[in-house]
Amino acid sequence: MTDPYKALDYLAVDELYTEEERMVRDTIRSWVSERFMPVIEEHNRNATFPTDLIPELGELGVFGSSLEGYGCAGLSSVASGLICQELERGDSGLRSFVSVQGSLCMFPIHAYGSEEIKQKYLPKMATGELIGCFGLTEADFGSNPGGMLTKAVADGDDYILNGSKYWITNGSMAHVAIVWAQCEGTIKGFVIDTDTKGFQGRGIKNKFSLRASDTSELVLEDVRVPKGNMLDVEGLKGPLSCLTQARYGIAFGAIGAAQAAYDEACRYSQIRVQFDKPIARFQLVQNKLVWMANEITKAQLMCWRLGRMKEAGTMKHFHVSMAKRNSCWMALESCRLGRDILGANGITDEYQMMRHMCNLESVITYEGTHDIHGLIIGRELTGEDAIL
Amino acid sequence: MEIVVCIKRVPASDTTIKIAADGKSIDPAGVKYELNPYDEFAIEQALLIKEQLGAGSVTVVTIGSKDAQKELRDALARGADKAALLTTDQWISDGASTAAALATWIKSQSCDLVLCGRQAIDSDNNQLAPNLATHLGFACITEVNKLELADGKFTAERDIEGAREVVTCPTPAVLSCQKGLNEPRYPNLKGIMAAKKKPLEEAAAELPAAGLEVVSLALPPERAAGKILGDGADSVPALIDALRNEAKVL
Ligand SMILES: Cc1cc2nc3c(=O)[nH]c(=O)nc-3n(C[C@H](O)[C@H](O)[C@H](O)COP(=O)(O)OP(=O)(O)OC[C@H]3O[C@@H](n4cnc5c(N)ncnc54)[C@H](O)[C@@H]3O)c2cc1C
User: Fold this and answer.
1) Which of A166, B117, B179, B180 sits a CA distance of 20 to 30 A from A234?
2) What is the position in ligand 1's atom list of the atom closest to the CA of A143?
């Protein structure tokens, strides 16, 4: 076996999942070990995404896995969370790809698209024949997307869009873009074929983070979109409802990255000898591993609970904020501790640690920064809004 | 074609094995199990044949504890149509008993082809296919690593010492599957969802009295630590010397 990965399950959280959920998780885990791990370092080095694996992901059914119908698998929320966890154990870029496709693109089409739009896009997105991207952020509007400048103006049976989006995952490789724009005094979403005249995706180069993921700028110059491609939702709650879905996946996903870090650090500490002892025998090293195991376990329980609330329909966006914030933070800290345990070896890409660590710098920032999620929780707790 | 695939739940190849207090069985505590890897080729082949013919059914069967439901569900998720669990709490070490109990059950089914892995990686008996074929009166080809089906006749290739043998046989047959036969598919997520709705019957395994008994079980001696002779091309002579004079493999 080339990939010796063993997932930590200190409190037998496994027993809280159904047999099917475990089966889904194990399937994705083996797929990542067998198909993705052998190629990720090379892709990370070259800053490319393994596009040849997209059909396999489609065949597995990971795109829009919790949606019903249109070729989607209709899994439980916990199962779809566990998919994210296993994908991100491989790389945050892989999980990002799947999150964007499912939570940010298929979800809004499924929730707010006309039947015609759903039929046109969803089955092909489920197989991965069509790739989506989600354009909300602009260069000058990140945490404050409501200030966006991109505009849609009605013109006969169409809308004409102008503006630009920045930091858009899958932006250059996408066939279809969900773009949010100021429109008639509110914010509206549009489903746009990326080969439409005036639409352009330009890759953002030289990233330290999420290298195996396409991050792009979208430029829209007089892009004509039929009215039927406008989503049936108004205001920021449209894009925010998508973000709630994606953040839910990230909360599970980041646990996977932390698990990879813990596994690598623990294994390394047992074989690395200094002062004639494996470094695992030093209390300070143990303490770091304990911190990681402790936080991973708490995050597993938090996400399991969140998943069951999502299934019961009681999950609110501010619940998701707590889990997204906690998971990203503890995963990033785990990688930093793990990097330390690996010593100098930890700075090369012979080990995964630093790849995960760098990736998580994006994951803790996108879909609402750590602090913005703190403020969402704070607003819920105190009734005082400190964001605006 | 009605196909039966015999599968087994075995300790995972990377799990740590401890011998139980009785000195002749393994301590199940903390052992992780998996579908016998060779059985994955058997399941895949059954699905490929069914897909090729566009008709027929694939039934997976195992003898084991209730826990083996997991491996059966795995096969259902990949695309098998139904499953049977022949229950026993015994740890069966006698390959002949396994074959007899499976044969009894298979005779109660309509079956043209039985597929199994070349061996189960826990007991390594390599007995099931020929034993089953004898009970059933079916043709038997073991360790198949290439298989074609045309006009109701199988053409199988198998590696034998220094050569590749090509054999044919008609149905009904028992074939044991070797690595390389095919590329087993992953169960997809829709398959996993569908699996819970597929029939999984349970019946007590009709095991005859065992003819064999395990007398003792011991772990292999621990391997001596490896030796690093150096780094880079300069150390090649030392490596050759060690391989020739210490390990005596050159
Ligand atoms: C790799 C990557 C992929 C991405 N993919 C996508 C995508 O597919 N689609 C998309 O639309 N966007 C995407 N984004 C954009 C991402 O969502 C934004 O970067 C994020 O929302 C933060 O916005 P910003 O970068 O403009 O930071 P800013 O909003 O400028 O924040 C900078 C700092 O100020 C703090 N801050 C801001 N406002 C407040 C406040 N009110 N109170 C306290 N502190 C505050 C923040 O917490 C942060 O520390 C991606 C980003 C990255 C890095």
Assistant:
1) A166
2) 29
